[in-house]
Amino acid sequence: MLEMRDLHLSFGPRTVLDGIHLDVRPGERIGVIGPSGAGKSTLLRLAAGLLRPDSGTCRNSFLRTRLVFQDPRLLPWRSVAANLDIALRAGGVPAGEIAARRDRWLARVGLSDAAHAWPGELSGGMAQRAALARALALEPDLLLLDEPFSALDPAMRADLGKLCADQARATGAALVCISHQPWELAGLVDRILHVAGGQVRVQAAAHA
Ligand SMILES: Nc1ncnc2c1ncn2[C@@H]1O[C@H](COP(=O)(O)OP(=O)(O)OP(=O)(O)O)[C@@H](O)[C@H]1O
Fold first, then answer.
1. Which residues of 140-169 are buried (b: 16+ CB within 10 A; e: fewer)?
2. 86-140 per-position pLDDT tens digit
3. Which residue has the CA at smallest separation from atom 26 of ligand 1?
4. Which helix (H) or strand (E) holds 169?
5. CA distance linking residue 41 with residue 170, whole number of Å
6. Which ipTM did the prediction report?
7. How many CA atoms, within 13 angstroms, populate the side-chain half-sphere of residue 135?
8. From the CB of 197, is ligand 1 less than 6 Å away?
9. Which residues, including other chains, have CB under 8 Å from residue 205's CB and lie 6 or more apart?
């Protein structure tokens, strides 16, 4: 469970979040929309524990939270496969399971043939798929997606969105996805939050 209560955060004189209340329960899939600069990424960083609020509380009792950023953030001096292996080792996956899990996830994002490539040799979309595989291979119980599909073509966006939703359904994980394309959230999430003016303005049910 993720609980945000009356959460405030400013960067210098700029108030970005101004009294956020939000609950994310296991199995919930939530979309986040709102104007540029509204604080959507900041909200996810708080949820992931990368930022602390100035006041209010942010409690995250999920055990494995993974955040996928807009840019892939792969280690450039390691192969694609090694990028996954390092994350899996750091995530406590037993050594004997790492290769099989990495190969399964690279296959699921269509990157089996790129396992031994360097990140610099990948297209933007391939690198983003590798970053998504790295996150999903950890079997997170809270998956935070910060516009991870923006570098992908529409067909690939739909495929990977479905992959995330299917994985969340299969494992009971919660998912929070920021998007500038509300249509991209259809079928992926159950409800959509509109963040504006530092607050969660609207909570609407999503339509498939
Ligand atoms: N580390 C930081 N230091 C100072 N200001 C920051 C920092 N991170 C974010 N901001 C500012 O906080 C505001 C909200 O940023 P945030 O990235 O959360 O918005 P967003 O809604 O995700 O925007 P976008 O849709 O453009 O990605 C912006 O004005 C941004 O410049």
1. bbbbbbbbbbbbbeeebbbbbbebbbebbe
2. 999 999 999 999 999 999 999 999 999 999 999 999 998 899 999 999 999 999 9
3. 36
4. helix 154-171
5. 26
6. 0.96
7. 27
8. no
9. 190, 191, 192
1-64+140-208 maps to which CATH number?
3.40.50.300
- Sorted by where each begins, the domain ranges of the chain are 1-64+140-208, 76-138
The per-residue DSSP string of 4-70 comes to: EEEEEEEETTEEEEEEEEEEE-TT-EEEEE--TTSSHHHHHHHHTTSS--SEEEEEE--S-EEEE-S
Which residue from 17, 18, 33, 40 has its CB within 8 A of the most atoms of ligand 1, so it is best to mutate?
40
Phi then psi for 171, rounded to 5 degrees?
-105, -10
The tokens describing 208, both together, are 């498939």
Is 11's C-beta closer than 6 angstroms to any atom of ligand 1?
yes
Residue in the structure block whose two tokens are 């690198």: 127
Closest CA to 35 of 198, 186, 148, 190: 198
- 94-102 long-range CB contacts below 8 Å, 24 or more apart? 101/137, 102/137
Q: Does the C-beta of 42 come closer than 6 Å to ligand 1?
A: yes
- How many degrees, rounded to 5, is the angle at CA 51 between CA 22 and CA 92? 95
